[in-house]
């Protein structure tokens, strides 16, 4: 099967030129000062109402990071230029930032005043920003400090220490603990990354490496992420890493990065990536980026993460059998389409990420004979011989999960967005959709989804509308019941499937029905 890479022209921004140009070209329009008002300190997301900011949209982040020493626990010192467009006339605006400190801020080349309020950086420019016009924000000397990862405290894993250096895992709401940003997946932007490190230190980031040079005892690494990316998908890894051979597979650049102590162990597993790309391309269409690979640090995070173009899969996954780590790799790879290229419009829409990734994980595991697995393993595979058997077991849990965690597309709280009802329940929705419209129409919907919304953020309502259009059926009531209902609807084609009675205690997940979740 052939893989055809989607290639786009690189959009490389010269940050200093942007600042100077914006300062000279962007000025307040007549009457703008009177009409200007503060941008909102939050987008009103149902699960994270204070996350993100209103009044503007980011176009590009140019982030420069300096690491003074080789110590894994050292802080980063950063300078950042943000190119944005005002959607309202702004007297002031916010960025999300929960790092240690900020030096100075300039807007359109003029010094701006700023204050910090909780995890908000509140910026007042020297002149109001007219609606519809681009502006630049220069932030100097911001600091963030990595922490020892604690699986019981997600915030400690946002910017975490390993024996070999530090790296990032900012999903869902932690990118702003590392760098100032509009930290919501509805506001995607392109990125440039520059790392200034002690000579010989390695840096890894999303996208394509465009420069690597050493001079005067310092090494400079530069990366470009030319396709839009949500802040929660950024990877900033610095330390001592092994870079596997860089190869091309049907036009896609493949690049893996591993902790030196793990390289020999995990290279045979990572060699499966081209075949897994073939699997996904055959089902949903061209790979959406120029480069793909995996980053395997020597740590135990308790999850894997779809950081854009380079999946984060910690060493703990490879301590289990192939029937665990191989489907997990496919899960994260499928996110490049579902979650990375097409991002959720709100965090309640996360089932569009995780339901799809779980669906392809399960179908792949079934095709590879890895769905049953070794039930002595933990995290153990599903223990079911076929996808139908697994989906029937998930269906049985449906009412209990909706009671405990909320409907598939409406988790009760932020704590429920990574529940079994989002992952397994989301896959069950897709199974029901395939039952309802047929295999061919289902495949057409999947391909249309990742094509129409490539590089964008999209909602559950967008998915319902597209599925209806592509299938030629009005699926509004059908999918609304499956996605927002408090009880599990009848399964098309399986009238004998039943749900277990709901108890008042949290759902007791059958060990044989449970797969450890990769984010």
CATH architecture of the largest domain: Sandwich
Give the name of the CATH superfamily of the largest domain: tricorn interacting facor f3 domain
Mean pLDDT: 90
Q: Poorly predicted ranges (pLDDT <50, ≥5 residues)?
A: 1-32, 374-381, 507-518
Largest sheet: 8 strands, mixed
Major beta sheet, strand line-up: 6-5-9-3-2-12-15-14
Percent helix range: 25-40%
CATH topology of the largest domain, anyone? Immunoglobulin-like
Look at the helices and sheets and give the structural class: alpha+beta
Strand fraction equals 25-35%
Please, how many domains? 2
- DSSP E strands, number: 26
Radius of gyration: 23 Å
CATH classification, class level of the largest domain: Mainly Beta
Shape: globular
Helical run tally: 11
Distance between the termini: 28 Å
Describe how the helices and strands are arranged.
Elements: H1 15-25, H2 32-35, E1 37-38, E2 56-66, E3 76-86, E4 90-96, E5 104-107, E6 110-111, E7 113-117, E8 120-124, E9 134-144, E10 159-162, E11 165-168, E12 189-198, E13 202-205, E14 208-215, E15 218-229, E16 236-239, E17 242-243, E18 247-249, E19 252-254, E20 257-258, H3 263-270, H4 273-284, E21 291-292, E22 294-296, E23 304-305, E24 311-313, H5 322-334, E25 342-344, H6 351-367, H7 387-405, H8 420-437, H9 439-452, E26 456-458, H10 460-471, H11 476-484
Parallel strand pairs: 1-4, 2-12, 19-21, 20-22, 22-24, 25-26
Antiparallel strand pairs: 2-3, 3-9, 4-8, 5-6, 5-9, 7-8, 10-11, 11-16, 12-15, 13-16, 14-15, 17-20, 18-19, 23-24
Helix pairs in contact: 4-5, 5-6, 6-8, 7-8, 8-9, 9-10
